[in-house]
Design goal:
There is one protein chain. It contains six helices and 19 strands. The strands form four sheets. Strands 2, 4, 5, 8, 9 and 10 form a six-stranded mixed β-sheet that branches. A five-stranded mixed β-sheet has the order 13-12-11-19-14. The chain has 323 residues and is an alpha+beta fold. The chain has three domains: 41-139, Sandwich (Immunoglobulin-like); 150-204, no CATH class; 215-322, L,D-transpeptidase catalytic domain-like (Beta Barrel), CATH 2.40.440.10. The N and C termini lie far apart (139 Å). The chain is elongated and about 120 Å long. Helix content is 18%, strand content 34%. The protein has helices at 2-15, 20-23, 150-161, 174-186, 197-204, 307-313; strands at 41-46, 53-55, 59-67, 74-81, 84-92, 94-96, 99-107, 114-120, 129-130, 134-139, 219-223, 229-234, 237-243, 256-259, 262-267, 273-279, 282-287, 300-303, 319-322.
Length: 323
């Protein structure tokens, strides 16, 4: 019995011996490490600057490189004004001279400190890199009557936004010159029709506007005699400012709060042109002589060229404040 049991156990032992497959499983193959993307180098340059400045309304070109060149890559270019983001552009990189190249531009429309920077975000094919900001300032030219161009257009737009009158078109015409004279009067500057570089800079910066004295009067007219201007306003916003000449020392203009009560179109026997009366014989009217100082017999004189527009702006019962 013992022999049989021993033989059976021996047979079972042979059957359950571990095989090579069950004893030691084969190790899984290790995948190869991915090749790292090559490092990138981004550079950016600003063109057409003079001593680190661009003239207002000038288009400033920006160019850059991305190395090495890899097809299909993009660069993000961001423009700044006084440290705040103006806008960004994602530019395709093209091959040029063994490197990637990109180009864009910006039109300088405001005063301030501009800057630009470029950035490449890492992709599986190329690493990340970015530039420091490259900055520049703005220069402003003096403007004279008869000049034309983008700077004049931008200047007139800036003047209109503050309420000063300006002619249409691309040139510095007579109406713009009178608007400049009104600006100079409001800001206690020498009285001329020339826009110096400082005045142009202030206009583009939105400086030198007129502060309405009677904002609660709705649509009305103001005539501050110390400034020698006529101001049309809606609430606290001036929308048309004209140079005038008020009553001289011996025949001063009345002061106070009045309403427009009577019209007289065309010329009258006194040479008054398209008159709007607000008190007795006192009126706003055009006249051949409008010096930079008080010279009238008490009325508010305007330039002949401005008076038809002024005449059409005024309406019966409109308030005028004179002080």
């Amino acid at each position: 019995m013992n022999r049989r049991l021993s033989s059976l156990l021996a047979v079972l032992g042979v059957l359950f011996l571990p095989t090579a497959a069950t004893a030691a499983p084969k190790p899984k193959p290790v995948p190869p490490k991915p090749t790292p993307a090559p490092a990138a180098t981004v550079k950016v340059e600003v063109g057409n600057l003079k001593k680190g400045r661009a003239e207002i309304m000038q288009t400033v070109p920006v160019s850059g490189t991305l190395a090495p060149y890899v097809a299909g890559e993009k660069v993000k270019v961001t423009f700044y004004l006084d440290g705040h983001i103006l806008f960004s552009r994602n530019l395709k990189v093209r091959k040029g001279g063994g490197k990637g190249v990109f180009r864009t531009s910006i039109e300088v429309r405001e005063n301030g400190r501009y800057a630009v920077a470029a950035k490449h975000v890492a992709t599986p094919r190329l690493g990340a890199d970015s530039t420091v900001r490259k900055s520049w300032k703005v220069s402003f030219p003096a403007l004279r009557r008869g000049e034309c161009g983008d700077v004049v257009v931008g200047f007139k737009k800036a003047m209109r936004e503050m309420g000063y009158i300006a002619n249409d078109g691309r040139c510095y015409g007579g109406k713009t010159a009178r608007g400049v004279l009104a600006y100079r009067k409001v800001n206690d500057m020498s009285r001329s029709m020339r826009a110096g570089a400082g005045l142009v800079k202030n206009a583009f910066s939105g400086k030198g506007g007129y502060t309405v004295r009677h904002p609660g009067a709705g649509e009305h007219v103001e005539a501050p005699l110390s400034k020698q201007v006529l101001v049309f306003a809606k609430g606290d916003r001036p929308f048309a400012i004209y140079p005038i000449s008020s009553g001289k020392y011996s025949t001063p203009t009345v002061t106070g709060h009045y309403e427009f009560i009577r019209t007289e179109p065309g010329y009258n026997s006194h040479g008054m042109y398209y008159s709007w009366y607000f008190y007795g014989g006192y009126a706003v009217h055009g006249y051949n002589s409008v010096p930079d100082y008080p010279a009238s017999h008490g009325c508010l004189r305007t330039f002949i060229a401005d008076q038809p527009e002024i005449y059409n702006r005024i309406f019966f019962g409109e308030d005028i404040f004179i002080w």
